Every structure is written in C-alpha cells, then in structure tokens.
Amino acid sequence: MTTRFRARVSYDGTSYAGWQIQPAHATVQGEMEKAIRFLTGGHVRVYCSGRTDQGVHGRGQVVHFDLAGEWTASKLLRGLNAKLPEDIRVEALRRAPADFDARFSATGKEYRYFIWDGPVMPACFRLYKVHVRRRLDVSAMNAAAAHLAGRHDFASFSANPNREVDGTVRTLRSLRVKRTADGVAIVARGDGFLYKMVRSLAGFLIRVGLGDLAPEDAPAILKARKRTATVPTAPPQGLFLWKVSYSSRRFGNEHRS
Amino acid sequence: MTTRFRARVSYDGTSYAGWQIQPAHATVQGEMEKAIRFLTGGHVRVYCSGRTDQGVHGRGQVVHFDLAGEWTASKLLRGLNAKLPEDIRVEALRRAPADFDARFSATGKEYRYFIWDGPVMPACFRLYKVHVRRRLDVSAMNAAAAHLAGRHDFASFSANPNREVDGTVRTLRSLRVKRTADGVAIVARGDGFLYKMVRSLAGFLIRVGLGDLAPEDAPAILKARKRTATVPTAPPQGLFLWKVSYSSRRFGNEHRS
Fold it and tell me: Could you report the predicted ipTM of this complex, rounded to two decimals?
C-alpha cells in the first residue's frame, strides 16, 4: 500500500548536472531520491514534470513519488528539507490521487529567461542571468515574439527535432519580453516545450534585441522547420522552470503544506 | 605623478571575509589590490566608502585608489574585470579629483536588507536574503521605522557604541519597509551608519514584524542608548550596501565608463 505525493520544488541548478540521475554527477533527481532513502530506507523513484538541463534552475518544478508507510505531508516536507542540500528545497508537498503524474497530467508550463544587458554583469546576478553586453531593443524582441506565439511547428527551435516522439508542433500560449529594474525577462507559456526550445527562443530573441536579426525573420525561420546556426541556444543559467499547471478540477490547486 | 580613480563595485559577499584585507582570508579589498598588482606590477591601496562585514554584499560600493602611469578609465575597467573573480565586478570607473575620498567625501549611503518570510526559503534566494519562517507584518514594521527615522543617538543599534570615534548620533534620512513579489525589503538611507547599525535595525524590525515587539517599543529602545538583547543583529547575507552618494557639484555624477 503506497501513497502518491506531489511536491513543488525549487533548485539552484549551478552545482548540478541537470535534473536526471547520473552515475558520476550530482543531479537534482539524485539528491531527492537520496533524501527519501535517508528518511524511509527504501529506494523511491522521483518523477518530474520535465527534465531540466545542466545549469538550468527550478523555481516551480513539480514532482511525484510513491511512499509506503504513514507519512503526513507536513512531516515529509520538513524531513526532506532537513536532508536535502540548501540549493534544493521542497516548497510545498501534499498527497495526490494515484493517477496524478507530474509530467503527463501537466496542462501547461511557464519558463522565464533572465538577461542583464549592460557592459558589466553585477556580481550577484552572475548565477541567475545571462550577460549581454549591449542594451537590448525590447520592442523589437516583442515584435518577433508575436510571430512565434501560437500553434506552430517549432522544429527550428528544438536542439534535436528528430528525437521528439510527439512531433514538433506545440502551442506557445504567450511569449513576452519585459524590462525591469534588474534587466530583461522573457516569459514563455505553453502546453509543452521541445528539447532546448526556450533557450532557442531566447537565443533568437536576443539576436533580434541586438539588431542582428529582424522581427520579420521569425516567420521564415519557423517555416523552414529545420534547426540552423541562425538560432543559437542561449546559455543555461538564465533559464528557470517557473511554474507547472494542472487541471484544478481534477487535481486541486497548489498549496503549501 | 599619480592619478586618482574612483570606481563603483559590486560583489557577492558569500565567499569573502568582508571588505577589509586580512592575512589568511579572501577579502574584497585583497582581491582588488591583487588585480591592480597584476595589471600594474605595483602595490596600491584601495579605499572604500565603508567596510562591509563577512557575508555582506555590495551592490554599489564606491572605492578610490591612485595609479602611476597612463591608464584610460575604460582600459582599466576592462583590465580589472579580466583579473578579478566573477563575484567582484567593477561596474563603473573614472578619474576623480585628487581630493576625492570614497569614505570622507560621501554625503549619504543607502543599504537594503532582503527577507523571505515564508515556511521554506526558495533555493535561489538563499545567498541573498534572510529566511524568516512566519509572515511579517509590514505595516507594523513601517510604524516602528517611523519612530527610528530622523536624527537620533543610535547607540542602542550599534554592535559596539563605545568604539565609535564620531559618537553615536546619526541622521537616518529614511527607513522604509516594502513587500514585493520576492519577499520583504528594508531600505535605509542616511548620512552615516554605526557598526552593524543596519543589521541591528533589521533585527529589531523583524522582531516587530513577527509581533515579538511593538512599534511603540522603538522610542524607549532609542532613549536607552545602550545595546541590549532586545535588538538582535540580523544575519549578514540579507544586507547589501546599495548606493553611496557624493556631492555632484564637487565630484560629478556617477556614470559608466
């Protein structure tokens, strides 16, 4: 008899070889499974909404796992955080229906990509933003983003379109660029994302912001359905998996435990 | 023949034993003097607007130093950043009048203290905010802050009032607490600050925000002019030296080089 738990997890990707467990490297999944092993003595697999690559951060990653025995959500949350390193935190945890799946039940995801566009990168931003030396034209970036939002074949924005088992058509519900006091943020919301799609969108938008490409180049790049050097993959440390959405009718709303 | 330079510097205090040079520990001053030695071959002393303690961050620290030889500001800025570790950055640099002194010419300083008030500290905030588990009452904190703003004897808010050679009266031009999407920020502006004064103000305001002390306790604490356990020193990682002001008539406005 096991109980399924669902957790919202944040992590600083700086020190990890990404989400997925690997033999010789520290990974977020590896640390979470180790913490559960400390608490329960058993090996438990932790499933996430979508793997993040080396150096990418989690702000609102969602995971699920099954535990035997009697665990209250609040005791389990405290126990996990006591065993996990401080750069991985379980921010919320609760029981979930047996058919809740962090990946397959997700109805949408939000990623954010952060950029500092100035001559020198402020010291305390270096781990969580990407540095672009010249000031970005945010209006041009938003004009380009408007061409990309919607349902399209995003093969030109995937690192490996042939690997995608579900094809390369996705719905980008919104793609917006905004300037804040702390630089520039790209916010991408969609029903699902291809491998390295957000970093490819960011790489393209940064080139537009620098004036190397025009917003009007976007439709032709989409239409080509082929990855080329025109679209670079922006570096990982600017990327945060920000939020994962689920049907609140079926799985309830997120809350802190 | 030497030229005086003035620089605006940001640093992540996490890995440093504070500003001031020490024999066996990495310090911000030590790293800056080492970078200058790499570039110029000579030993040059770097003076700052005010030392920061171990673990405290710099967002807009200002320094001055004198160099012999021909250096353009832009070449020096690039050279220093090439030699400095990434957690110390020279964000702006320019020639300054020979009587410019980062410390004694300063007319005001702004510090900011950042807090996350929730059950779990998000992973990527851990190095730059302090964690308070319960939600803070920001209105109460601002009511307390209103008692502290102005010209007062702040001996009760100094870690070592007897050590202060200029006495313990300072003008706190403003002290404000605001809630943002990323937690709570305390902003303190003044003509000068005593040793550990901002962390003491933060420690007191946090106790008020938690309901352990009342805003109306502030006048009596000020009046006592004696440090007691009522006022704790808040931890260093929440504190940023945010900005240092100088007379723009005498020394010009800050700009990037």
Answer: 0.92
- CB-based contacts of A183, cutoff 8 Å, min separation 6: A114, A115, A116, A117, A118, A125, A129
User: Are A122 and B59 in contact (CB < 8 Å)?
Assistant: yes
Radius of gyration of chain A (CA): 19
Contact A88 B123 (CB under 8 A): yes
| Contact (CB, 8 A) for B57 and A124 | yes
Here the contacts of A14-20 (C-beta below 8 Å, separation 24 or greater) are: A14/A55, A14/A57, A14/A87, A14/A127, A14/A237, A15/A87, A16/A54, A16/A55, A16/A87, A17/A54, A18/A51, A18/A52, A18/A53, A18/A54, A18/A55, A18/A56, A19/A48, A19/A51, A19/A52, A19/A53, A19/A58, A19/A61, A20/A51
CA dist., res. B191 & res. B171, Å (int):
6
How far is the alpha carbon of B17 from chain A, nearest alpha carbon, in Å?
Answer: 16
Contacts of B11 in chain A (CB under 8 A): 123
B137/chain A closest Cα distance in angstroms: 20
- 8 Å CB contact between B39 and B79: yes
Which residues in B lie closer than 8 A to residue A90 (C-beta atoms)? Answer: 120
> Regarding beta strands B88-95 and B106-117, do their DSSP bridges make them parallel or antiparallel, or are they unpaired?
unpaired
Q: How confident is the model at residue A253 (pLDDT cuts 50, 70, 90)?
A: low
Residue ranges of A 61-100 with Cβ closer than 8 A to chain B? 77, 81, 86-92
Distance, CA of B188 to CA of B177 (rounded, Å): 9
Given pLDDT bands bounded at 50, 70 and 90, which one contains residue B253? low
What pTM did the predictor assign?
Answer: 0.94
Catalytic residue annotation of B: 53
Residue numbers in B near A77 (CB within 8 A): 120
Which of B83, B87, B120 would you mutate first to test chain A, the one with the most A CBs within 10 A?
B120
State the pLDDT at residue B247. 85
Which residue of chain B is at minimal alpha-carbon distance from A256?
Answer: B119
Eight-class DSSP state of A55: T
Q: Which residue of B has its CA nearest to A13?
A: B124
Cα separation, B74 vs B255, whole angstroms: 12
Angle at B234 between CA B232 and CA B236, to 5 degrees: 145
Element (H, E) at B24: none
Say whether B120 and A91 touch across the interface (CB within 8 A): yes
